[in-house]
Specification:
194 residues; 9 helices; 0% strand; mainly alpha
Length: 194
Amino acid sequence: MGKDKIDLRILKTRKAIKEAFLTLIQTKGYERITIQDIADEAMINRNTFYLHYVDKPDLMENLCHESIEKLNVCFNLGIKEQDIHAIDKEMFISSLHEMFKAIEANIVFFRTMLSQYGQSNFSTHLKEALKDFILSGIGDHNPKMKVGLEYMISGLVGVICMWILDSEHLVVEEVIEHLSEIHFNNVLDLLKSI
């Protein structure tokens, strides 16, 4: 037999809970939301909520993990030490395009998390996740690598946050072009310093 399929009702309920949660964060702020608020907004009962999530922090952690994990696919170039010399500008630009597409597909989540009502340390969480994705398979062998990567990732996350909060006025292709001009050679130099 094939893989067990998740019941469509479970998927719909989880989707309703997540959408309700994001709506409530935007209107009430994370701290003021109760499980009953989420249940009412999702049109479920409290017990149904607890079938899917332990509590509000569990729901938040699950949402963050899901959304950040979608970005992992963008950096699944499988950069390993032996592949560093194979990276070219087109691969770099392609990864940036995929990353921005993944963010855009989940823009409500990212915009909510970065708003004044969202999770205050979300940009730090995003930065750490991007560092983990980029470093997977190559490690952070030296202080120069750590400092350079911190500098570049901080800038990248800053630009991502700027675009998320003002995506109507910033054309993603132009943002990617600027990022590739600024960072491509720096990324290569940094990776080659391993």
